[in-house]
């Protein structure tokens, strides 16, 4: 099987999303609420108003020629003519109209692909070694595990409402081409005592406070891959920081808890998952249609030998070959995608992989079959005829489309290549085989700048009061299952000077390339200082009066500024909804003429999402609020009476109490009152029971008088429990008791009345 299985739950979720989509188009569902629904389906708003991007999950980068044909059709009909390969080996369609997204998602489902979990606080596209199943150094093929784990994660409801995004990958060898050491959960293939399994890394990642993953276990049997991935996810789900999205990734949690406590929590979840059952993860080997390898010895034609030597490699299967196809900036025009897909159809299903470096691999072809593709590939991408490092320039979309982008790295790549192409006859760029240049438009590392030999991430600089685009420079990464090292800070350069800076660094490296095994070795042996010195030449720019060009970013028609930069949509979720309702509630409270119905609705709705409730209509909101906040005693029963009938001025009191409750909420969505109730419930029971008085049937104010009489009989710190009727008794007595300084520890629904627990002052 060469695809993951979309579970019924995803189809059910799509039906709900269709309804949300229709309501949004009709104007009955607000933008913010719709955003929290569309982003987990991989639908993002772009920087250009009213344009959207649809992200598609390709587990392990795997897709068939037939699927590529359908993506080409979608790109032609709905997108900006191109299929974009992401830095997680998935696919994206850009400049999509919001009206078309349901048609796109439905078509994707018809070819066994989905965008569910493509964005937001979800389990993202699961990656794998791009050479999985073909590499000579691999322990075994990890592709089936990426597919099977994708299926299992799509089946779990908690995969789509996490504190932050959650990334998983598989590598087939210690070369760690799948980057297991820098993921939230990373598996590296291993065989121990004849049993297939994996070395397990956790809590790696790039971006704010980048962190190399920690080795969690030296060996996890293949049968327990889902068990550990799910247990780690559940610990993250229950303990991750939901209040601060800038400190919400798993790497922050593990630093907060410490590895020992994190291990303990994971082991607790493992036992819980085992007790629940259904944790096995069956895998199916991918079927390969191999060509005839018994042909006469193949001699590579002279006219394609340069291409062959640069990009074609012999697989571990004798007589079969793979080929790296460099894709300029990850963009494939639909006509080229269609031509390649049609050419590959006769060779079977397992002949294509998209990669995290925004390229693709063709695989499982005989030498004559591979040679027959040369002319198609030359037209397929302009980078095919160039040295390999041109295709190894990775860039995120940056400020061209991304809400968070500062600089425009795609334009920078074009400028770099344009400058270097003029030097082909003078430089031996083929000596730089494997050299990677990575660019991100901001510090968030979507261009994975920390794992480039030479990396850049966008920043803002100012000169004489004018802003201009610039980049931080990093250099010298190492990736290995024995220990990954991120690239080191190596200076700053103005975006305008980036091509000249890259040219000089490469010229310098070419002088040393034969003396070192890697660029990182040279960086560690004095090269870092050299790069830093080179960067100093390219920091300053002329005054705006003398030359305006440095104040424009690449492919921009306006002066550089952060205008249009907004809030990223990756973390769209519950806090967006809470803060939106809170803001609207405060505005309603500040108005001279109060709309009590609106105040009550906003107050009741504001925190429902923290309990997993998404009711939006008035009746549903008020009912859910009473069940989740009043009946559970998070709020006093007094507030329950405000939910009945028409709203009045008491709604202001309700609003103020809800805002106070929100201010006590911690990063795991627990309120201070919840912790108090839990402490009471878990406290050792005293041998002596609490004093008790049944006041049901006793009306106000006599019920309060009798309560005071009972309190007079007990000492300070002792407990009195009373039974009160619903309505006025439960509304008034606890407030009166608290007003006299006693502590109302709990109010619990009991039959038709309420049990109130009071601690005497």
TrEMBL record:
Q: Which residues form the Nitrite/sulphite reductase 4Fe-4S domain?
A: 120-270, 393-533
Database matches in Gene3D superfamilies:
Sulfite Reductase Hemoprotein, domain 1 (3.30.413.10), Sulfite Reductase Hemoprotein,Domain 2 (3.90.480.10), TusA-like domain (3.30.110.40)
Task: Domain (Nitrite/Sulfite reductase ferredoxin-like): give its ranges.
Answer: 44-109, 313-377
Q: Which UniProt keywords apply?
A: 4Fe-4S, Heme, Iron, Iron-sulfur, Metal-binding, Oxidoreductase
Q: Name one Pfam family in it.
A: TusA
Report the residue ranges that make up the UPF0033 domain in this protein. 694-760
The organism's superkingdom is given as: Bacteria
What GO annotations for molecular function exist for this entry?
A: 4 iron, 4 sulfur cluster binding; heme binding; metal ion binding; oxidoreductase activity
What's the name of the protein? Answer: Sulfurtransferase TusA family protein
Which organism encodes this protein? Sulfurospirillum diekertiae
């Amino acid at each position: 099987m060469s695809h993951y299985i979309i579970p019924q739950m995803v189809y059910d979720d799509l039906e709900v999303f269709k309804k949300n989509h229709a309501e949004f188009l009709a104007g009955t569902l607000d933008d913010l609420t719709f955003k929290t629904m569309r982003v987990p389906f991989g639908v993002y708003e772009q920087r250009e108003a009213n344009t959207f991007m649809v992200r598609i999950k390709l587990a392990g980068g795997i897709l068939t020629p037939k699927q590529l044909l359908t993506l080409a059709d979608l790109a032609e009909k709905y997108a900006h003519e191109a299929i974009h390969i992401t830095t997680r080996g998935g696919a994206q369609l850009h400049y999509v109209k919001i009206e078309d997204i349901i048609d796109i998602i439905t078509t994707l489902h018809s070819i066994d692909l989905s965008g569910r979990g493509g964005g937001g606080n979800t389990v993202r596209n699961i990656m794998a070694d791009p050479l999985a199943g073909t590499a000579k150094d691999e322990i075994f093929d990890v592709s089936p595990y990426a597919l099977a784990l994708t299926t299992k994660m799509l089946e779990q409801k908690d995969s789509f409402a996490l504190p932050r995004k959650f990334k998983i990958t598989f590598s087939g060898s210690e070369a760690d081409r799948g980057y297991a050491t820098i993921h939230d959960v990373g598996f590296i293939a291993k065989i121990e005592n004849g049993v297939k399994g994996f070395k397990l890394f956790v809590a790696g990642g790039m971006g704010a406070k980048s962190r190399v993953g920690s080795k969690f276990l030296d060996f996890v049997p293949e049968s327990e891959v889902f068990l550990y991935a799910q247990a780690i996810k559940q610990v993250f789900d229950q303990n991750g920081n939901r209040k601060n999205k800038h400190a919400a990734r798993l790497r922050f949690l593990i630093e907060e808890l410490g590895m020992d406590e994190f291990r303990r929590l994971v082991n607790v979840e493992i036992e819980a998952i085992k007790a629940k059952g259904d944790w096995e993860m069956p895998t199916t080997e991918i079927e390969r249609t191999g060509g005839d390898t018994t042909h006469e010895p193949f001699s590579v034609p002279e006219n394609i030998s340069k291409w062959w030597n640069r990009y074609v490699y012999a697989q571990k299967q004798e007589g079969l070959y793979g080929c790296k196809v460099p894709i300029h900036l990850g963009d494939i025009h639909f006509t080229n995608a269609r031509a390649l897909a049609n050419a590959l159809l006769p060779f079977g299903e397992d002949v294509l992989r998209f990669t995290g470096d925004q390229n693709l691999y063709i695989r499982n072809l005989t030498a004559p079959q591979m040679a027959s593709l040369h002319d198609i590939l030359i037209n397929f991408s302009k980078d095919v005829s160039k040295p390999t490092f041109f295709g190894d320039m990775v860039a995120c979309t940056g400020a061209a489309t991304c809400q968070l982008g500062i600089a425009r790295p795609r334009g920078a790549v074009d400028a770099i290549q344009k400058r270097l192409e003029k030097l082909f006859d003078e430089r031996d760029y083929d000596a730089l085989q494997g050299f990677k240049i990575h660019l991100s438009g901001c510090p968030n590392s979507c261009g994975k700048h920390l794992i480039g030999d030479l990396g850049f991430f966008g920043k803002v600089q100012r000169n004489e009061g004018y802003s201009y685009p610039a980049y931080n420079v990093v250099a010298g990464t190492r990736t290995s299952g024995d220990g990954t090292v991120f690239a080191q800070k190596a200076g700053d350069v103005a975006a305008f000077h980036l091509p000249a800076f890259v040219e000089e660094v490469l010229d310098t490296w070419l002088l040393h390339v034969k003396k070192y095994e890697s660029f990182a070795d040279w960086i560690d042996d004095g090269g870092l200082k050299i790069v830093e010195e080179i960067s100093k030449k390219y920091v300053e720019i002329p005054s705006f009066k003398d030359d305006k060009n440095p104040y424009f970013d690449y492919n921009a028609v306006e002066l550089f500024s952060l205008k249009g930069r907004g809030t990223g949509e990756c973390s769209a979720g519950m806090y967006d909804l809470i803060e939106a309702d809170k803001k609207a509630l405060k505005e309603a409270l500040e108005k001279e003429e109060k709309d009590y119905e609106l105040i009550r609705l906003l107050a009741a709705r504001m925190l429902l999402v923290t309990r997993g409730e998404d009711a939006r209509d008035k009746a549903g909101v008020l009912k859910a609020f009473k069940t989740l906040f009043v009946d559970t005693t998070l709020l006093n029963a007094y507030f329950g009476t405000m939910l009945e009938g028409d709203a009045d001025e008491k709604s202001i009191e309700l609003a103020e109490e809800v805002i106070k409750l929100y201010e006590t909420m911690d990063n795991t969505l627990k309120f201070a009152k919840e912790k108090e109730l839990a402490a009471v419930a878990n406290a050792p029971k005293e041998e002596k029971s609490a004093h008790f008085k049944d006041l049901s049937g006793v009306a106000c104010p006599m019920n309060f008088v009798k309560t005071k009489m009972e309190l007079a009989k007990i000492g300070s710190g002792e407990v009195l429990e009373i039974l009160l009727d619903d309505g006025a008794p439960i509304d008034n007595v606890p407030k009166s008791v608290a007003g006299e300084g006693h502590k109302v520890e709990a109010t619990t629904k009991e039959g038709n009345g309420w049990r109130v627990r009071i601690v005497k002052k």
